[in-house]
Structure formats: C-alpha cells, structure tokens
Specification:
heterotrimer; A alpha/beta; B alpha+beta; C alpha+beta; B: alpha+beta; Alpha-Beta Plaits; 2 domains; two-stranded antiparallel ribbon; 5 strands; 29% helix; C: alpha+beta; Cytochrome-c3 Hydrogenase, chain B; three-stranded antiparallel sheet; binds iron/sulfur cluster
C-alpha cells in the first residue's frame, strides 16, 4: 500500500480534485476529473507509476461527450478512472504516444462518437468501414440525451 | 559439438515418446462414432427450442396467451395470435416461433406465469427454406415433436 | 493471399523489395475473420497492420436500446470459446449496481461452470495453436477432452457453446450429486491426460524449437498495450483478477497464478497448461465445500438500474474482461462498454511481429489465443 500512497500523493499535487475510495465501491479506487489539455500529462504520470491502460471509452451526455479512461496497476489491481469532458472544438490530445494501445481505442471512439484526437498516428475507422464514415452510431438523439450530472455520478 | 549431439539424442527421444502416445491411440478403442449409423445419447439437460406444454389432465395447452414471452424475448421471435373459447378463457390460436432468430436463451420459458413453455429435445432440424424455420408451436406440439 | 510488390532503391546499392501480403480475412491461421496486412522483406516481417471489424455487430448499441435482461444472450456471443466469464461479469455488475445478493451456493456453481469453460477454452486453444505450428495430432486429443467438458456443460447449462446459464441473483440449474460425480470423474481423467500432453507437446523438440524465444513480450510492451491474461502472465507478471481483486467466491479457494519467465510462446503455452490444472483445483475445492441452500435469490419482477456508473472486472480465459455501465434510472443501460482482452492482446502484434520470420509470426499470433468476434464485438 506504500506504493499506492506514492501514486496518490503524486496525483494529488497535480489534481487536487482527486477522489479516493479504498473500497472501490463503483469498481475503481480513485477518480479524477480533468481538462482536455491535461490528459497527456496525466497519462505520462500514470505510466511512470507503472499503471497499464485498461480501456478508453466515451459517454454521450449533455452538453458534450465525456471520455472515460480506465487504468489499472497489476500488483494490487488498483484502478483509477479519468473523466474528461470533451471541449467545444471536439478535439482531445491523443495519448497513443505514451500508451500505444490507446491508438485503437481512440480510433474506435473517433468512429463511434465523432471525437477527434490530435497527434494521433492515424485516425482511420477501426471497426466500421470507410463508407460508414460519420455514422457515429453511439451518439444519442436529443430526446434520449441525459445531462452529465444525472448519469455520471461517482 | 557435444551439446549438439546431446540435443540430437534428447530430441529424438522426445519425438519417439510422442510417437509412442500416437501408437497407443492407434490400437485403442476409437473415441468417435460413425454418426448417422450410431448416435451418442443426448445430455438430459439439453435445451432445444421452446415448445408449448400440455396440461396432463386435460391435454390442452396451459398457455393463456398473455403475451409476456412475446414481449420479453430479446430476439423478438415469438408472435402469438390469441383467441377465446366459448367460456371466455384465452388460448393461443397461433404461436409462431421464428427459429432462425431464437437464441435459445430460455427467457421465455422462465417468464411464463403458468409454465406454459418448456424446452424440447429435438436438435436435428434441417430445413430447406427460411419459411420452414418459422414453427407454429400449436400445430408442431400436436405433431408430437 | 494476395501479393503486391513495391520496390525501393536505397542509396547504398541493391534494390530492396517490400512485399505486401494479405493474410485473411479468411485464413485458417487467423481463427476467424481477421485480416493482417503484412509488409515482408523476403521471409522477414517488416510491418503488420491488423484489419478488424469484419464481424462487428455493435453489441454496445444493442445494450443501450433494450432492457438490460435482453443483453444476456449477447454476452455469450462475443467470446464464443469462453462465454461464461462474460456473463458472470455482466450479471455481477448488474447485481452490484442494484444491490442484489447472490446466495453462496449459486456463486459456487458459477465458479465451477466458469472454470469448466476455461478448461474447454484452453483445450481448444491448445489444439488450434499446435495446428498453426503444423502438428495435426494434438488437436484430436484436445477435442476428445474438450468433448467431455462440453458434455458436462451441456447437461448443466443446456447448450454446448452459447451458454445462457446465469441469471440475475443466481443460476438456472443446480449441480446435483450425479453432475458432481461426473465432474469428479472428468477431473480424474483430465489429471491423467496432462502426462500425455507433456509427452506429446511440452517435451517435443520440434515444438520447443518453434516456440522457445519466439515472440518475446516484455512487461513494458504488455503495459503499453494493456495486455492481460496468459499473454501477460507468460511475461512473468502475476496479474489475475481472481487473485488481485477476488470477486464471486474466489476468495474461498486457494490456487496459484502460474507465470512464465521469458515471455515467449513456450511460456504462454506452459502458463495455459498449468492454468488448466489450477482450474481443476478450484473446481475440486468448490465441489467439496459447496454450501447448501438456494441457487437463486428472490428478485423483484422489474429491476431498474439506479442512475450512476460502475465497472466490474473478471478474469476470462484470455484476460481481464471489464464491463462498464452508465445507468440513468430506467431499466435500459445508458451506456455499456465491453472491454475485451483480445482487443489489447492483438494490438501488440503490430510491434511484436516486426523483424520476425513469417512462420514465427504465425506461431506468435497463435500463442495470443485470439477470438475475433470478441475483438470486433
Ligand atoms: S429462447 Fe430466448 S430467443 Fe428463443 S424464443 Fe425464448 S426468449 Fe426468445
Ligand atoms: S407461453 Fe406463457 S408467457 Fe407466453 S403467452 Fe403463453 S402463458 Fe403467456
């Protein structure tokens, strides 16, 4: 647990808003809300502390999509979640340089939600075909959309 | 050079050991069966397509055509036409199961309030057309399949 | 396979040819509809670009357009070789989210079913992997054993591959004495079979030559790509969700997490074979200590998912399976994300395959134990 502390202390200095729940009631031990330009820094910090990328996904909420990054540390299955509201220009810096596995997740999010990742090695469709470009199947229609505070509760 | 020879001998021995396993299988009883001529017994727990259950006393279907299964089926492959007897009880005049879409999940069997559905034990059901896979369980049940 | 040639003239002399070769989408060694665009220099692989999505069915969209119960059959159709962990994960997530307690007996039955499924999956992998390496005989032995497991599972769950066996708050059928004895009998048989596999495969010099020091995955590479499961454990990292974050009844059992030392194909093979033995151990303990009682908790007829988010992870046969749920208070999930282990495990072939001989690349691909429908989802 000493290791956990080092990580949390390091994170807390950069992200004072971090919430920690040792019991992992929702499936993760710590959660951070951050802004788009902070994500490469946060990813490098987590990489230096030996965390692996579990997955990246997005949720379509009002006003705009929110990216959700899940990281895990192998030694004790310590899980940390980063929440990132997509800014107005719909562009988020890619973390594929740090976590190479992120490239596919970002391509998938790109085609499903129409989010653009800057500095990405090649943002072509992954699971859909080229003809289906712009389909964005996981975007919800206005009537089905919930606002961020209602669903992304932690 | 010495290592090479040791590896050669050990490797050869390992191949012979593997061959020994194969040879033993060659003289053992076959584990397969010649399928159409001989069939393996069906597992008792096997779940085939859903079928209508009859009341053992009266011989009538216990289904009351309430439509719960139709509504809850994830694949939406059940279609029921309900009718009423003279005494006013509902019964399924037609109970269509589109077996091309059924995923055999068993949710319909589970949600039925009167245990009107059960799993059949038929598994070899080849058909030539798509239409033939749409079973009417009312008549199919009478055929005894 | 189609071949395209592109030539590059280098300054220092001869013309280098770079061939582009398509492996797949329908090729026996990709075990599914996977396409690899491989750049070759002679027999050497310069680049690999996997093309996936041929079997994409948009399960996540299906999840958010129907009530959550309707997603239950879908969980069996992603990882066709080992679907029960997916179902376990999905239902545990819903149960935790709605606060439904599962009776201990049901958890034990779930564990037994999942471990049997894991053995079946590893046996399938073993046969298919050796087939990739050109050995035809072992798959027949594997399928002989797998048949036994599938028979047991069929009797228990009603299906051979696409089981839909777990239900909210419990399981569909109990393991009675007869089934328990059958499982015990299978365990006895299976324990005796490992020596056959060792003679046939583990000690075989051709197998060792084809897999030793081939496709070495370093822990660093695994971390950058997020590899999990036997692929990660073969590299010496003992990360197993059953151990690190015990869920269901796994806390009650003692078992080892086998790891490799070099991270090559041979280590991944050893890890999986040892994992089968550990699974047998878990099943044995579970059968012995099976608590009496209900196999299904009483649950309300309609279950709504309270607003909020939650994730749940289990250890599948190929690695960590995670389901991430966002709910808005109705009975339909607002968003459901499925994290499939093969997705990350395939991803790393792009880096791992570079500079390999073509035949070694096929061996490495086989050692990753890919199930393509799980990647495509
Ligand atoms: S078994 Fe499942 S898919 Fe088939 S009819 Fe019943 S509910 Fe529908
Ligand atoms: S089979 Fe059962 S659930 Fe379906 S309509 Fe008949 S009574 Fe209702």
């Amino acid at each position: 647990m000493h290791h956990t502390d080092a990580l949390i202390i390091a994170l807390r200095t950069v992200f004072p808003s971090i919430t920690v729940s040792p019991e992992a009631e929702r499936g993760w031990h710590a959660a951070i809300a951050l802004a788009a330009e902070q994500i490469p820094g946060a990813a490098s910090l987590l990489f230096e502390h030996g965390l692996a990328l579990s997955f990246i996904t997005a949720v379509h909420v009002r006003p705009r999509c929110e990216l959700v990054y899940h990281f895990v540390r192998w030694e004790d299955a310590f899980r940390i979640v980063l929440h990132l509201p997509v800014p107005e220009n719909n562009t988020v810096p890619s973390i594929a340089e740090i976590y190479h596995g992120a490239a596919w997740h970002e391509r998938e999010i790109g085609e499903f939600f129409g989010i653009v990742f800057s500095n990405h090695p090649g943002l072509k469709p992954l699971l859909l075909t080229r003809e289906e470009k712009g389909l964005c199947p996981l975007l919800r229609s206005d009537s089905l959309l919930q606002s961020r505070e209602n669903v992304l509760i932690w | 050079m010495k290592r090479y020879i040791i590896e050669l001998v050990q490797g050869g021995a390992s191949l012979l050991a593997g061959l020994g396993v194969t040879l033993r299988a060659l003289v053992a009883q076959p584990v397969t069966v010649p399928y159409p001529r001989k069939k393996l017994p069906m597992q008792p727990g096997f779940r085939g397509h859903p079928m209508l259950v009859r009341n053992p006393a009266t011989g009538a279907f216990t289904c009351i055509a309430c439509g719960t299964c139709m509504q809850r089926c994830p694949s939406r492959c059940i279609d029921i036409t309900a009718a009423r007897t003279e005494s006013g009880t509902k019964y399924p005049a037609r109970f269509q199961l589109d077996f091309t879409r059924c995923s055999l999940c068993g949710i319909c069997v589970e949600v039925c309030p009167v245990s009107g559905l059960a799993f059949s034990r038929s598994f070899a059901m080849p058909h030539r057309t798509r239409e033939a896979c749409k079973y009417d369980l009312v008549t199919r049940g009478e055929e005894g399949t | 396979m189609g071949v395209a040639v592109r030539s590059t003239k280098t300054e220092s002399g001869p013309i280098h040819y770079r061939y582009f070769m398509n492996v797949g989408p329908q090729h026996p060694s990709t075990h599914g509809v996977l396409r690899l665009i491989i750049g070759l220099y002679g027999e050497y692989v310069l680049s690999i670009e996997p093309v996936i999505g041929y079997g994409h069915r948009m399960h996540e969209k299906m999840a958010q357009s129907r009530p959550w119960q309707a997603f239950l059959p879908n969980t069996a159709r992603m990882d066709y070789a080992c679907c029960l962990p997916h179902q376990h994960c999905y239902l545990s997530l819903i149960e935790q989210h709605t606060g439904i307690k599962v009776p201990p007996r049901a958890e034990y039955i779930r564990v037994i079913a999942v471990e049997l499924n894991r053995i079946a999956s590893h046996l399938l992998w073993l046969g298919a992997f050796l087939l990739d390496l050109g050995a035809f005989t072992p798959i027949l032995y594997c399928f002989d054993d797998r048949e036994e497991v599938l028979d047991i599972l069929e009797n228990l769950t009603g299906a051979r591959i696409t089981h839909c066996f777990f239900r909210i708050g419990g399981v569909l059928a109990d393991i009675d004495d007869h089934s328990a004895n059958r499982i015990r009998e299978f365990m006895r048989r299976m324990r005796g079979r490992f020596s056959v596999y060792h003679k046939l495969v583990t000690e075989n010099i051709i197998f060792i030559k084809r897999t030793r020091d081939i496709g070495i995955i370093t822990p660093d590479m695994a971390r950058r790509y997020g590899a999990t499961g036997p692929v990660l454990r073969g590299s010496g990292i003992a990360y197993d969700v059953r151990k690190q974050q015990p869920y269901s009844a796994y806390r009650d059992f003692s078992f080892d997490v086998p790891t490799g030392s070099r991270g090559d194909c041979y280590d991944r093979y050893l890890v999986r074979v040892e994992e089968m033995q550990q699974s047998l151990c878990i099943i044995e303990q579970a059968l012995e200590r099976m608590p009496a009682g209900e196999i299904r908790a009483p649950v309300p007829r309609t279950i709504r998912l309270p607003a909020g988010q939650r994730s749940f992870s289990v250890e599948g046969a190929r690695g960590e399976v995670t389901y991430y749920l966002v709910a808005d208070g109705t009975d339909t999930p607002y968003r459901l994300k499925v994290r499939s282990p093969c997705y990350a495990n395939l991803n790393l072939i792009q880096e791992l395959g570079q500079g390999m001989l073509f035949a070694d690349m096929i061996a490495t691909l086989g050692s990753l134990d890919l199930v393509i429908p799980e990647i495509d989802r």
